[in-house]
Design goal:
Quinone Oxidoreductase, Chain A, domain 1, GroES-like_sf, alpha/beta, six-stranded mixed beta sheet, 10 strands, 8 helices, Rossmann fold, NAD(P)-bd_dom_sf, globular
């Protein structure tokens, strides 16, 4: 009986298998949408496959600037860039000379910031958030866009060190990048200027072929990749020479990927 149920479960899973979806860069081969034309390059939500039919186009953005690698639109010039700019320019409003800490899922906060933190860009949560709060300066700002350490816990960890928020008058605010899509043009101008002037260096780790996707995803959790993990589909190998790149990416903050 157990074996019968197991087979039925597996059969059901196989029948309902869907491609992984996320953010990627694509070239439009055909469209009936008046906002797009054949040959347009776009970034937005798509799937891990060579070709896709995208019905929901509200979150697709045309790519107008191709003097930078198209793969950048899966990260720094895409969702990751919107998140970073929204957190800094709209939530935190940093000033020259202030100390800014952007968290990752490792490290000792007090060790690296003995004089305190003015702005904390929170991605981790849990013990990291607790430590950061203890190291905040007066009138500091905490912008919360993720809590990666908490997502898969059966019972999320509570924050214990809240008292400094009161006597240091620290502001803590959560935000979602989706609310700042309307600011994309402004954010893009800022980021492109940094890249073109050489003020910002962006590192990518590109794996070619959809068959490399499982290994690339697993590698994120062991730190195997150096920089943003990007997946390049087979057909993109041909289009790459023409600057028509079809690719997707993973983020260590969770799955942030897409191929079309």
């Amino acid at each position: 009986m157990w074996f019968t149920h197991k087979v039925a479960f597996v059969d059901s899973c196989v029948k309902n298998v869907q491609p992984i979806t996320g953010y990627g860069v694509s070239k439009i081969l055909d469209t009936g949408n008046a906002n797009f034309q054949k040959g347009d390059l776009v970034w937005g939500m798509t799937a891990f496959e060579e070709y896709s039919i995208i019905a929901e186009t509200e979150s697709l953005f045309k790519i107008e600037h191709t003097d930078v690698p198209l793969s950048y639109y899966t990260g720094i010039l895409g969702m990751s860039g919107i998140t970073a700019c929204a957190g800094f320019y709209e939530i935190s409003t940093p000033k020259k000379g202030e100390t800014i800490f952007v968290s990752a899922a490792s490290g000792a906060v007090g060790q690296y910031f003995p004089e305190g933190i003015d702005i904390y860009f929170e991605n981790v949560g849990g013990k990291m958030l607790d430590a950061a709060i203890l190291n905040m300066r007066k009138l500091g700002h905490i912008a919360v866009c993720g809590l990666i350490s908490q997502y898969n816990l059966a019972e999320p960890e509570g924050v214990k060190n809240l008292m400094p928020l009161i006597y240091k008058r620290v502001t803590i605010k959560g935000f979602s990048s989706f609310k700042y899509f309307s600011h994309y043009s402004k954010f893009l101008d800022i980021l492109l200027a940094f890249i073109r002037e050489g003020k910002m260096v962006y590192i990518e780790d590109i794996a070619e072929g959809l068959e490399k996707t499982p290994a690339a995803l697993v590698g994120l959790f062991s730190g195997r990749n150096i920089g943003k993990q990007v997946m390049l589909s087979a057909i993109a190998r041909i289009l790459l020479a023409l600057k028509y790149l079809t690719l997707g990416s993973f983020s260590s903050q969770g799955v942030d990927n897409g191929i079309a």
